[in-house]
Amino acid sequence: MVEKTRLFAGAFLKCQDEVLLMKRSPHKEIAPGMWSGVGGHIEESEINSPITACLREIEEESGILPSQIEKLDLRYFALFKSAESLDSVYYFIGELKEKCSLRQTSEGTLRWVKLEDGIDYEMSNHVKRIYLHWINNLTNESLYCFLGEDINLLG
Which of 100, 103, 126, 141 has the most CB atoms in a 10 Å sphere around its CB? Predict the structure, then answer.
């Protein structure tokens, strides 16, 4: 039985042929020690605006300001059930005007990675599926939904 729901927003930020990835701290509750884009929980005040949550998380985790992002588009929505919750994840794809230097963060380790090398990094199932789909469809700006193991085009 699902006892709670959780909402998340995250992003893969691209600059030329590289993407910003974060290796999550080993003390994190969700996907400790795994690689992902930057992101986190959607706060109660952000429920109606996942992009607001995403921009906040990007700034908190990387120091990258909204003004440094050329575009940030919602490209993926994932819905999956764990033993204790139903999780909804909004994943955005962003482009930076220029590559920025990385700072230390308690959330994990940030690293610029060549797009094609990212596939070798250990990621949670849904993050890996989103990443693989994205890098194989870089010019496609459609919105996709992951439900369990299935992917569907939404628009």
Answer: 126
Degrees (nearest 5) of the Cα angle 47, 125, 116?
Answer: 105
pLDDT at 107: 84
CATH of domain 4-153: 3.90.79.10
12 sits in the region (left: phi over 0; alpha: psi -120 to 50; else beta) called beta
The ranges assigned to domains in the chain are: 4-153
> What is each CA distance from 142 to 29, 45, 91, 99, 108, in whole angstroms?
31, 27, 12, 25, 30
